[in-house]
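Sequence only, no structure available. Ideas?
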Amino acid sequence: MKSTLPLHVTDIPCVLDHPEEPPRPTFLLLHGFGGSSFTWHRWTPSLSRRGRVVLVDMKGFGEAPKPDDGHYSPTDQAAYVTDLILQLDLRRLTIIGHSLGGGVTLLTALSLQDLGEERIERLVLIGAAAYLQRLPPFVGLSQRPRFSTLMIRLMGPARLIRFVLRTIVFDRKSITDDQVAAYSNPLRTPDGIRALLDAGRQIVPEGLEEMSRRYGELAMPTLLLWGRSDRVIPVSIARRLDEAIPNTRLEILEACGHIPPEEIPDRSLALLESFLDDTESIDRERP
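Reply:
I predicted one. C-alpha cells follow.
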C-alpha cells in the first residue's frame, strides 16, 4: 500500500523472507534534524537480513514533500508517522529514531498506545531529543529565518553542511563527501531552506514537559545509544531517559559524537544487533 502522507518512504523487504516462515520484524527508521534516510545507509543491509526495513524521510527533509503549511513540529511529524504505521499496517515494529527522530519515536509510541495499538515491540533511541534543553546553534538560528536564509545562500549548502557536521562529530575525518552531498542537496531549493527553518522554529513541541512525564508508560524493551562526546544532545539526557523508561539498556559509545550510525557504523551496529538478539525471545512469546 502506498502512503499519501507528506513523507518519503523507502520500503525494503527482508532479503531472507520465505512464504512458509512467520512474519519477520519490521524496522522503521527516523532521522534527525536536517537529516534524511542517508543516516542509515551503513545499517540498512544488516537490518534487511533480519526483517522488513522502512526508511522515512520526515516531512520537509530529504526527498519528502515540503509544503508551506506551517505544520513541522515533532507532534505533527509523530502524527504523520502514526498514520503511516496504520496505513501500511506495520506490525512487530522496532522503531529506531535519531536526534529529532528519537523525539518523534517517543511521541509516536505514546500516540499508538493512546489508540490501543500494540504494534511496537522495541524502541531504539539514538542521541534522542526528549526533554527541554539548550538548542544547538544550528537549530537556534532558525529563529532568525531571513538571516539564516541569507547565510545559507552566501555560504552555499555544501559548505554549510560540512561546517555543521564538523561541530557535531567526534572525528572530523569521518565526514565524507557523500554525507555532505546527501544533506546539502535539499537546501539547493527555496522550499528546502524554508522547510528546514520551519522545522527548526517548531522543534520544541507544545506541552513537552507534560509529554515527557509519560515516558514511564512505555514498557517495551528500549535501547539508548549515545555518543560520549555528543554536544547536541548530551549524555545527561540519556541518563534521564534511562531512569524514566522502565525497560532500558543504556550504551554509551566512546570516541563518538552525535551520529553513531555514521561516525562508528560497525561498533554501533554491533550494539544494536546484540540488543535485537537479546530481545528476540521476547518477540517470539508475543502473539
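The first helix runs from residue 44 to 47.
Hope that gets you unstuck.
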